[in-house]
Amino acid sequence: MTDHAFDIVILGGGSGGYAAALRAAELGKSVALIEKDKVGGTCLHRGCIPTKALLHSAEIAENVRDAAKYGVGASFEGIDPAGVRAYREGIVAKKYKGLEGLVKARGITVVAGEGVLRADRTIAVGDDVYSGTDVILATGSYSRSLPGLAIGGRILTSEQALALEEVPARVVILGGGVIGVEFASVWRSFGSEVTIVEALEHLAPNEDLALSKGLERAFRRRGIAYSLGVRFATATQTDDSVTVTLENGTTYEADYLLVAVGRGPATAGLGFEEAGITMERGFVIVDPELHTSVEHLWAVGDITPGLQLAHRGFLQGIAVAERISGLSPTVVPDVQIPRVTYCSPEVASVGVTEAVAIAEHGADGIVSYEYNLAGNGKSEIIGTGGLVKVVRQKDGPVLGVHLLGDRVGELITEGQLAVSWEAHPEDIAPLIHAHPTQSEALGEAFLALAGKPLHAL
Ligand SMILES: Cc1cc2nc3c(=O)[nH]c(=O)nc-3n(C[C@H](O)[C@H](O)[C@H](O)COP(=O)(O)OP(=O)(O)OC[C@H]3O[C@@H](n4cnc5c(N)ncnc54)[C@H](O)[C@@H]3O)c2cc1C
Predict the structure, then answer these.
(1) Residue 150 within a domain
(2) Does residue 252 share a domain with residue 289?
(3) Per-residue pLDDT tens listing for the chain (457 residues)
(4) Which atom of ligand 1 is nearest to the CA of 125?
(5) Contact criterion met (CB below 8 Å) for 412 and 348
(6) E strand or H helix at 391, and its extent?
(7) I need a surface site. Which of 51, 76, 117, 122 has the fewest CB within 10 A?
(8) Kindly report the CA angle at 227 between 221 and 231, in degrees rounded to 5?
(9) Are residues 128 and 172 in the same domain?
């Protein structure tokens, strides 16, 4: 056994782990970053970046199909899966190279290998042992399935769906959450027949009802089929197809079934319980400052309960590095973290839904306002429908901002500032938005809630 001592040892080099490493190194700490696959983790290699590249290819396909509407001559000849793959892989490779360079430039020691936490709070990687004054766990998450539903063959998780070398003619997607609706959007744009099966009553079920319903209407118009409120029962496959049966007896036949029912914490067999860490359903329980129940042991990212988002991992990684270094970063609750689903139309939100606001303040204690993007010039120009919904406490601050429409993900930062800084619509109303932009729709909602609507009644 060879011992290696550092100020900080980080297990897992995804969004949470590498952000902690970069910030800790910046603050003068010696850092070992242990990664069994590739630094960048799920987000860079199998998640955010490659799926958003796919969605961009999908957007181009839609634009080419619609070109005549804008007076541009073009004809859609089809999707070239090899070309889409080359574009997607090129983006990932470039970002990976940049990240590797950054990690190296900050003097971080990257250890290639699978690490296991030992009871003495060190990490073993093969015959080597890494010890740190502080240890940060950031091992991320994996695609879950349902009991009795084995992944393999024509039954895919998002990892295999991403690597698919063909455009499937028919596909069933189990799960109408973020990953499910993003893949539905891509495949529909590529020409597939798509059916989403969601056991809850709505697509994007965690969002405000106005967004879920708006997304359902938009998907229906795009020819994306969905079954809501009925649970999956079984799936059987042959060499050529997969048959999916629901609990009400409905069956669907498709080329592939994508299982997108959520992601579980990647913590099994890593020695966490044995080291005395409090766990719940596989998640590492942390306090608001991201300490585990063991001193000098911290956890960040998807292994902690809450939103599974890359930027939450960045935020948490930075915060832990700063706390270990004696700083006092602000504790940011999940409700202040922006959420974007990048299907077409996009869904973006921050703060609480109207239903939660009512539960917290009473129906008489809140006011909400919806502005239809049909009234927004820029949205009309780029050909998107959708809506902006703002929920405020009566005579009080903005509690939630909810957006639906192509490109609205880029607008959510303003909503985040409003919610996090507890701005009142009256504070924001005088800050006029550039014309013509989609951000004006948000401005209209703030103006209306401040009692002085401009382009609305
Ligand atoms: C299809 C898809 C699309 C997504 N799109 C978005 C999006 O658009 N926006 C967004 O914000 N989020 C998105 N996410 C979620 C995002 O990818 C995750 O929230 C984020 O990657 C979590 O970061 P993390 O550091 O917790 O874990 P991960 O990124 O999973 O990193 C964990 C790392 O730890 C390594 N590891 C695990 N165990 C060990 C071990 N024992 N030893 C050494 N190394 C180990 C793994 O190899 C991995 O590299 C998406 C996810 C998926 C699957």
Answers:
(1) no
(2) no
(3) 799 999 999 999 999 999 999 999 999 999 999 999 999 999 999 999 999 999 999 999 999 999 999 999 999 999 999 999 999 999 999 999 999 999 999 999 999 999 999 999 999 999 999 999 999 999 999 999 999 999 999 999 999 999 999 999 999 999 999 999 999 999 999 999 999 999 999 999 999 999 999 999 999 999 999 999 999 999 999 999 999 999 999 999 999 999 999 999 999 999 999 999 999 999 999 999 999 999 999 999 999 999 999 999 999 999 999 999 999 999 999 999 999 999 999 999 999 999 999 999 999 999 999 999 999 999 999 999 999 999 999 999 999 999 999 999 999 999 999 999 999 999 999 999 999 999 999 999 999 999 998 888 7
(4) 42
(5) yes
(6) strand 387-393
(7) 76
(8) 160
(9) no
CATH of the domain at 415: 3.30.390.30
Could you tell me if 268 and 257 lie in one domain? no
Q: Which residues line ligand 1 (CB under 6 A)?
A: 11-17, 34-37, 41-43, 46-48, 51-52, 114-115, 138-141, 158, 179, 266, 270, 301-302, 308-311, 313, 342
The domain of 193 spans: 155-261
Shortest-distance atom of ligand 1 to CA 34: 43
Same domain, 213 and 170: yes
297, 213 contact by CB (below 8 A): no
Which atom of ligand 1 is the closest one to the Cα of 270?
Answer: 41
Residue 195 CA to ligand 1 center (angstroms) comes to: 27
| 433 flagged as catalytic | no
Would you give the DSSP letter of residue 397?
-
